[in-house]
Amino acid sequence: MSLTTETAGKAGVADDTDVIVDLKLFWIGAAALCTFYLMVRIYEQIFGWRAGLDSFAPEFQTYWLTILWTEIPLELVAGLGLAGYLWKTRTRDMSKVTPRQELRALVDNMKWLTIYAIAIYWGASFFTEQDGTWHMTVIRDTDFTPSHIIEFYMSYPIYSIMAVGAFFHAKTRIPYFSKGYSLAYLIVAVGPFMIIPNVGLNEWGHTFWFMEELFVAPLHWGFVFFGWMALGVFGVVLQLLMRVKALLGEDGVKAVIG
């Protein structure tokens, strides 16, 4: 049954007056994420050269390793807490979800994916390219460089947390995704996350073989392989849009695009 058919003649029903597309929280989340990373970048600019060149120096322990030992447990707790919250508050009877409620959940999931995309950009693009520049400029004496502490152990886990949120939101709020497991969604959520285990292989290889920091080195191929799995988002968006079309019906689609 299409949304337009179900809601015909129900203009006075309270549920139909609810806003389906509300971008307020989305803009707040996107602004907060970008502001946070801009602050991180400023911190790098100030303390990267001043306290980040000698891992044995006391200031390195203060300004960089303190961040490392703080961010890892916080990210672990945040990821598990988010997944637990979304599962605890899940829709337990999907048969009672109305087309309007499902449409709202579909829009919310698209917002999750957009925030995930922003986090992916900061982690897998901005800070990753920055790390390559750092290695071409500074000879490192530790695997936990200032660049790595931000890139590998902050930005990668953060976008992975966003992926957990998007996946669990779809699984627990949208009837279409609750029936099984979307291969596209698994690829887009799990693929980029696997870059984190690949970090261990990468650091071990650089330490064991003393390899140059060339992006085309075979040791870096895993980053590319798992990173490009983010393109699975096109399959996810296609599934979301097909469901939106089914809910709106032909008349609703024409009204939107007309």
From TrEMBL:
What InterPro entries does its record include? NH3_CH4_mOase_C (IPR006980), NH3_CH4_mOase_C_sf (IPR023349)
Recite the UniProt keywords alphabetically: Membrane, Monooxygenase, Oxidoreductase, Transmembrane, Transmembrane helix
Give the residue spans that cross the bilayer. 25-43, 63-87, 110-128, 148-168, 180-199, 219-241
CDD domains according to UniProt: pMMO-AMO_C
Annotated GO molecular function terms are: monooxygenase activity
Name under which the protein is recorded: Methane monooxygenase/ammonia monooxygenase subunit C
- List the NCBIfam families: AmoC_BACT, CH4_NH3mon_ox_C
